[in-house]
Amino acid sequence: MHLRGLIGVVHLPALPGDPAYRAGGFEGAYARAWADAEALVSGGVVGLIVENFGSAPFVKGSAGDRTPPQQAAALALVCARSKQLGVPVGVNCLRNDAHTALGIAAACGLDFIRVNVHTGAYVTDQGLIEGEAASTLRQRELLGARAVQIWADVLVKHATPLAPLEPETATHDCIDRGLADAVIVTGAATGAPVDPALLERVRGAASGRPVVIGSGLGPKNAQALLPHADAAIVGTHFKRGGVVREPVDPKRVRDMVERCSDLFASA
């Protein structure tokens, strides 16, 4: 699978048990997520990625601090329903639970997972997170899920490497040592634009693997950024008024898809 185009984010709202949860129960969260997924696909995205975005503050996701079971179950239900829309679907278990994401992907027939810290060690708002590439790749083999791609962030947002790390080194670590199938480049935070120089450096080091923009894409920077990327994950810009916690605005999706359709790097 080599996606070329815009990938829409389905943000699950806060669920029962989350600090930000107020009302609606699980069914209300599913209804909101399914409405967003349908709006994104009808607007022309080439894929979807489902995240437990409303469940902040997030657990680390590493051994001993995995995704809470109700969040994992909710993600699985939304992912399975999203697959019925006929586009590739991935999942990201925030903050960094590749093991649970792989379990969901294998059970639901998903196409990829996103891993924020696949290799190396980063200081984050959850504390120190270390990549688990060795166990993640072996779990994929045990599940017979080799078709599930691993998309790994390079110098991910909301994080700082424990020791100084050049983008080229981080990219090679993800691909050559962590065996990632694609790499993702982000800005400093959710909705923050990617540094064009960083994107070019990662693409130059990616050895032909797909390079995906992971945050901050909008009409103002699409022409400068997309020629250096194979795909882009878009969450904030697709929401009503460009506000990340609002519902997806179908018109914003259609307009952005049309604007970007011919800008991506050549296959």
Automatic annotation (TrEMBL):
Pfam families, per database record: BtpA (PF03437)
Record field: transmembrane: none
InterPro entries associated with the record: Aldolase_TIM, BtpA, RibuloseP-bd_barrel
Superkingdom of this protein's organism: Bacteria
PANTHER family: SGC REGION PROTEIN SGCQ-RELATED, ZGC:162297
Family recorded in the similarity comment: Belongs to the BtpA family.
The protein's name in its UniProt record: Photosystem I biogenesis protein BtpA
Organism: Enhygromyxa salina
Top-level taxonomy: Bacteria, Pseudomonadati, Myxococcota, Polyangia, Nannocystales
